[in-house]
Design a protein that fits this description.
The protein is mainly alpha-helical. It is about 50% helix and about 10% strand. It contains seven helices and four strands.
Amino acid sequence: MLDLQVIDDPAAATVALEPVRSRLLSELVEPASAATLATRVGLARQKVNYHLHALEAHKLVRLAEERKWGGLTERLLVATASSYVVSPGALGPVAPDPARGMDRLSASYLVALAARAVREVGGLLRKSEELNKRLATLSIDTEVRFRSAEDRAAFSNELTAAVAALVSRYHDESASGGRRHRLIIGAYPTPGQTKEKETTQTKAKETT
């Protein structure tokens, strides 16, 4: 089972996003039969089989094993991945594209960059799996709490200068056999910080 599968086929995305089928995918982290799933999700086995056939047709689940019970054969299916993400490529021409002249300081541009990363890395990941090779990537994920907007601006300027210096040091346009890598750096307010700020302000009022 893959850790993550990127879905770029519109039909497969439609199947995976259907609520019942999404629930079945979550239940199939371990192999299970239609009868077992029917009991878990509270649906008739025939209905579960209908959804499983759709998932299997789009390669979102696969056969894990078959068991013989008298004259019957029980099929146990398992999800192809532990989690899924729909690639923006599944949206076709309306998918976000940072090359469309967006404001580079806007949140829309950051979302478009993230969407492009999902689309491109998803395609590279699929090829690496087909070739049974590891895809070389680098990820950094952290949080920084700025005292003020001025500090945030200063941080942005220093980060830009540092990245420019590193790129200048390591980029070699004429390197024989060299391979380009795309570097993306983004920042946005941590979700939930507004509630945190309101709570802090409330506590401050209570103590005064």
